[in-house]
Every structure is written in structure tokens, then in C-alpha cells.
Amino acid sequence: NTRADSFQNPDTESDRIFFGVPVFSYKELQDATNNFDPTRKLGDGGFGIVYYGTLRDGREVAIKHLFEHNYKRVEQFMNEIEILTRLRHRNLVSLYGCTSRHDHELLLVYEYIPNGTVASHLHGELARVGLLTWPIRMQIAVDTATALSYLHASNIIHRDVKTNNVLLDINFSVKVADFGLSRLLPNDVSHVSTAPQGSPGYLDPEYFQCYRLTDKSDVYSFGVVLMELISSMPAVDAARERDEVNLANLCMKKIQKGKLGELVDPSFGFESDQVVKRMVTSVAELAFRCVQGDNELRPSMDQVLEALKKIQSGNYEYENLEKGDDGGNVIPSTSQEEVQPPPSASRNSSQIGILMNNKLSSQKSFSEKWESESTTPNVSG
Fold first, then answer.
1. Is the pTM higher than 0.85?
2. Which residues are known catalytic residues?
3. In DSSP terms, which residues pair with 48 in a beta bridge?
4. All domains of the chain, ordered by start, with CATH?
């Protein structure tokens, strides 16, 4: 049965199974959370509150209690169930079950991931100086890219990629969560036309302006996640200067001025550890490419993942990369296409070279992308 059939015909739902997942009674989940005890609240968002709970069989769970019970919420509820029952991946959160959509309360039951969100560790209540080392952040980036690459291969666009939706287990392994806004693309379709939804600071400006959702919209959002991992700064901060409220704008501005070091979390030892410096610089360039205003200039998620794995392994033997100058700055090779830093940055201060394999480059040169102010989006969301 299709989702529409199930929605219109309640007879298609058995008493205990819905879309292949167990159906819990409201009473079971009420008991599991001690009547939705406020002290068990794990977090909340635009669509509901998440509580910690323990099922009768002893399993620890996270239970999302959706706000309101209207048609839109039912659609999001069923959308998340339908998508998560299609997917099985070590870096995606598992859905254990749900309440019946005919219940007065809509609840989703997930595996409990005990170590909070990436956002909470970077700039929230779990943030501790030096706890999220650069190697851990690099692995978080690879794990998240792996999950998104898997989604895209399954014709699914997440549509709400952000550090609040990237959960961590006790080993800091990633579980990507929250598929309420996700969209399943029909085969052989490059985009869908839909009203923009997502989170401020992460929303693809081309999707926001043109209502065209593509897999490159997730790539843009992931670029902002990479910037957070580099800087430990939130994606949106109203306390920053007006043109720097959005992290994507702030990072591109600093990079174009050759001031990457001002962005980097001080705990990395960016200026003293040349290995870290080259890795962070490589990831910064990749993030820069991900947030290009024109989605055709962004790499695919598969290309992003491939690049991250190469950076993680220390493989810098790219065709168009020299070893760098004595100060550790990366200098692009003149044996390939000549790439100049932007006019506002001196050659000595430029830390962004051409670090990716040529396969990641578009037909337009990187210098064109540097010079085009139109590729510095104002992501107001």
C-alpha cells in the first residue's frame, strides 16, 4: 500500500504493525517516560519534544511527542516512518515503533543515543574545551557524510541537515536523526518543486529563492556543518555583526581575506601543528565549495565523502597541490590552472589552495568562484 492509501483507509493498518514497525499504545509510552516527566526531556524543536524512556522489555528509547494533531503533523509523522523503514545504516538512527496515527497523540519511538548532539558538544551544554579533538571531529564529518551519501543513493533528501540532528554515541560515532522533512525523489528526477523548509543558517539559498529542492541542498547544509566543526561556532548567532550572523557568510568572508586561522577552534593547535593545519585547511576549502550559491558548483555528497576520506588519511598527493611554503601555507601548483587568491588577500596570507582532486572541480575555475560575490549567499532561512 502507498502512504496515501494507508492515510485514507484505516483498514490497511493492523493492530500492532504499521508500515512494518511495531505500534505502541499511548499508555505504554506514557509509562516509559513516567508520564512525560519534564526532567526526562532530551530536547525539543519545531515539531515536538523528545523524552528519554525505558520500555517494558528494558530497552532505552527516545520518544518524540509531536506537537498538535493535524493533517500536516500526521503527514510528517507518516513520512518519517515510511522513510526510516526503508533504511538500515549504522550512521542512521533506528526507529523502534510509533503510536497509531488514529491516536490523539502522535509519538515516534527511536533507539536512545546517549551522548547528545554534535551541536551540544560544539557550542552547547556539553561543550568542553579539548573534548572534541580534531581527529574526533574529522570522524564525525566522515560518518555524517557517509550517512548522507547513503540517503542520496536511496533517492532521499534529508532537508534538515544540521548539528542538532547529528547524534553521538558514547564512542562519538554518528547517528543522523530527524527525517520529518525528508523527501523521497522519484527515479530519474533531479529535483522537486516544493516550498522551502529547513533551519535558518543551513538552508540552501537557491532552494529558498527558487523552490527547487535537490540533493545539493543537503550538500549546502553539510558545508555549514563542516564550518561548525572547524570553528565551534553556531550556524546562526544574532550577537555577531549583521553580515556575519550566518556562519556561512562569516566563514566565506574570513577565508576570502586569508584569515582562516581566526575561525579555527583554538584547541586544535592550528598554527603549531602543521598536520592539523593542512587537514583543517583542506576541510575549509571543501566547506567553501559546498556552500557555493550556484548548486551546480557544489560537489555531490559522494565526492564530498571521497574528499573527506582522503583528507583523513593524510593523502595530499593531489595533482594540483604543492607541498606549501616554509610557513606551512598551501600554495597551488602553477603546473595546473593558475589560481589567484582574492584581491583582498595577500599571497602570503592565503591559506586556501586547490586541495581537492580535479574530479571535484567544476568547469568554471576556482578563481571565478572566489571573485564572484554572488556565490556568497545571505542565508536568512
1. no
2. 160
3. 66
4. 3-111 (3.30.200.20), 118-375 (1.10.510.10)
